[in-house]
Inverse folding.
């Protein structure tokens, strides 16, 4: 089987490429990535060394029809796995245009080329954030039938991409499957995201910046458990369906900060509080019974142990993250005014 993996130099995408080539020893993977600030070829150094005969990197933009068509013509993928996305909520507030260009128009471009070339499956990787948020005291969870009510530019751009994927399925019979996943964590995650942000700041002796509403909660899944879920969807998922991927492991931002400091044996007074970003979602929680019942998926990585292993990886790999800390760092709290 030949896969085109878009965004394969990013955090989740690079893990997926490694996972797939390790577990599917006859398959070939094309990594199609523009290498924007979060794309990092160093994430895949070991993949090049181990699987160089079954792996190729192509630098390209999913919103550029010519680049996408060339990749399809040269490499003839049977499966498309679309990770490519701008994905940071804070940056989406500062520069929303680039999020809609990549996440909506880029996904539509990829779908259109896939339609022309013909693919066996189009696996689109989305997010729980398209559903909007839940009150902190709510007993509700998001199911695959919950309406999309995005509250931020990033969330809206991902919801737009999901609608494009579904429209191409219903209109053109593209064999699509959508996954909507809770927050991922693990090794090789860009240090702007909360767990590596807290870890790297703590290692540098700097205060950990928590939003004022530090009791807002997120549901967490280890990136390798997410990769296994996508594998099952590609092989067994029903065409045209959406699958939520969640663990039930909810943590507040405060709890994440405390856990990182505990792993590093550092004092709790290293925390500081900054103004919330606009439209800061309170809580996401997915009902993942569909993927568990239909495909037999369940998370294998315990959050406490997975977090400890992740923090330790950052301790041991300072050279990897040090240079990235200066790349397009977001100044939290410096938000645009409503008048622009």
């Amino acid at each position: 089987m030949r896969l085109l993996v878009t965004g394969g130099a990013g955090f989740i995408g690079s893990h997926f490429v490694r996972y797939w080539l390790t577990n599917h020893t006859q398959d070939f993977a094309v990594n199609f990535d523009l290498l924007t600030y979060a794309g990092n070829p160093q994430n895949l150094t070991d993949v090049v060394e181990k699987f160089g005969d079954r792996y190729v990197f192509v630098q390209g933009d999913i919103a550029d029809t010519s680049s996408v068509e060339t990749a399809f013509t040269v490499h003839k993928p049977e499966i498309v796995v679309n990770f490519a996305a701008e994905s940071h909520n804070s940056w989406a507030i500062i520069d929303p245009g680039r999020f809609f260009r990549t996440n909506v128009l880029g996904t539509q471009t990829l779908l259109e080329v896939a339609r022309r070339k013909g693919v066996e499956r189009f696996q689109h990787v989305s997010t729980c954030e398209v559903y909007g948020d839940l009150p902190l005291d709510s007993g509700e969870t998001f199911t695959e039938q919950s309406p999309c009510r995005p509250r931020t530019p990033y969330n809206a751009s991902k919801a737009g991409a999901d609608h494009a994927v579904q429209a191409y399925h219903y209109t053109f019979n593209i064999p699509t499957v959508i996954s909507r996943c809770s927050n991922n964590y693990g090794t090789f995650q860009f240090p702007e995201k909360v767990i590596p942000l807290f870890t790297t700041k703590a290692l540098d002796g700097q205060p950990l910046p928590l939003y004022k509403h530090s009791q807002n909660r997120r549901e967490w899944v280890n990136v390798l458990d997410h990769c296994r879920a996508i594998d099952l969807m590609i092989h067994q998922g029903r065409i045209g369906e959406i699958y939520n991927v969640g663990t039930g492991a909810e943590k507040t931002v405060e709890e994440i900060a405390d856990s990182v400091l505990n792993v590093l044996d550092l004092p709790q007074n290293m925390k500081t509080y900054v103004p919330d970003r606009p439209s800061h979602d309170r809580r996401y929680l997915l009902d993942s019974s569909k993927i568990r019942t239909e495909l037999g998926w369940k998370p294998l990585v315990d959050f406490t142990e997975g977090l400890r292993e992740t923090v330790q990886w950052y301790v041991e790999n300072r050279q990897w993250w040090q240079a990235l800390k200066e790349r397009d760092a977001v100044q939290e709290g410096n938000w645009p005014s409503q008048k622009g």
